[in-house]
Amino acid sequence: MELDLTKTAVAFVALIAVSVGGLIVAPMMQDSTVLMMVMPSMVVFGLICLAIGVGHGQYRATH
Description:
By secondary structure, the chain is mainly alpha-helical. It has two helices and no strands. It has a domain at 20-62.
C-alpha cells in the first residue's frame, strides 16, 4: 500500500476521532476537558510523531 497525503490525513483524523470518541464515551473525564485539553495535545503529539516518522522514512529510503 502506497501512502500519500490523502491516506495519511484520513488515517490521522480517524485515529484521533476514535480516541477522542472513546474518551468522551468513557466516564473518566468531562467532555469539555477532553475536547479542550486532551484532543489538542493528541493532535500536536501526533503531528510531531508524523513528522519524525516521515523524516526517518525519507532517510531510510535514501541511505
